[in-house]
Hints:
Elements: E1 4-9, H1 17-31, E2 35-38, H2 51-57, H3 61-71, E3 75-81, H4 89-99, E4 103-104, E5 107-108, E6 116-122, H5 130-142, E7 146-154, H6 170-193
Parallel strand pairs: 1-2, 1-3, 3-6, 6-7
Antiparallel strand pairs: 4-5
Helix pairs in contact: 1-6, 3-4
Amino acid sequence: MLPKILVFAGSNRTGAYSKKVANAAVKTLAELGADVTLIALFDYPLPLMDEDLEEKQGIPDNAMKLGRLFAAHDGMLIASPEYNSSIPPLLKNTIDWVSRISKDGDKPLRPYSGKVVGLCSSSEGNFGGARGLYHLRSVLMNVGTQIITEQCSVIHAHEAFAEDGSFRNERTAKSMERVCQSLIDHTRFAKSRA
């Protein structure tokens, strides 16, 4: 059975490099034999995480939709920009809301349980957003995911992509391939142990 991988970018900005990285990941994962679903967080708007709001109104519908999507996939690949050497607020808010989910109606729902995650980043600078991935790893470990070691950080993202969306730099393309193959291998292993 093909591993089911959910892919999304941590930015909604028009022309965001992280969206281009997510698209490149989708193509690579599919070529390597994964069943891939690409979503945009823009389609799941959420209020700022607020426990008072949660107590009054419950988990927002869009957080529940995302939680069900996360739970329905074997693994995830997140393409994140770097904001001041850390996680963009859109992505952190999404992770936090989904982490509040413990049930779906009367059924237990643990969106992050057993989830294998691959990480990519991008920026116009020389580090390619890699500094933000340290923080993202920490947050994702705390919610119970298994993060693979390999990661792909796209440096000089403003000039990294060809018109067809592929990477101009062969080294970056190989890095993405390593991340995607490792994610597929780890999700298969995790499924075999479940």
